[in-house]
Design brief:
Blueprint: E1 8-10, H1 12-15, E2 20-24, E3 27-33, E4 43-48, E5 57-60, E6 64-67, E7 93-95, E8 103-106, E9 110-115, E10 118-124, E11 130-133, E12 141-143, E13 152-155, E14 160-162, E15 172-173
Parallel strand pairs: 14-15
Antiparallel strand pairs: 1-2, 2-3, 3-4, 4-5, 5-6, 7-8, 8-9, 9-10, 10-11, 12-13, 13-14
Amino acid sequence: INLHGGGIIEAPSVNGGEDLIFKAAGQVDFLIDSNGNSADDQAFKIYKHSIGGTPLFEVHEGQGTTINSNVTASGNISSSGDIIADNILVDTKIIHNGDTDTSIDFSGDQVIFTVGNETLLTLTESTQDIVTIGDGGDVDFKVRTLNTDNGLFVRGSDDRVGIGTSSPSAQLHV
């Protein structure tokens, strides 16, 4: 099949096999291997230029799909199973699905953890690195240790600090 612009698609009956070949300027541009030319004859694979090396795209019967290159999408990507990756790159936020006031926000050299629209934890890397608990609202802070649930407890509602207690009765209760 000749395409506008000089491209050609060769069907299996033309190329003598079961591969579908896409050519541009007389050279193989993409090749679809569906006949078991590879060691895995249960796979459908798309190669750049020829069979051999790592395919760009693989569909394995009963095992899923592998894309051996970058994937770019302009819409939503959804999954009913786990997404497994070596790295996940995020420009700004990870937002909890169905709970949009819960997120992890990446802003320069700062990571902000927000739950229920309340900033609970902010990590800042600067000339003086800072870990901030809360955003000035009523947020309690608790440090648990091996032997106590309240090694250190700061009650956000009245600014009292307890050591070994979650019910400080004074500004500092030991």
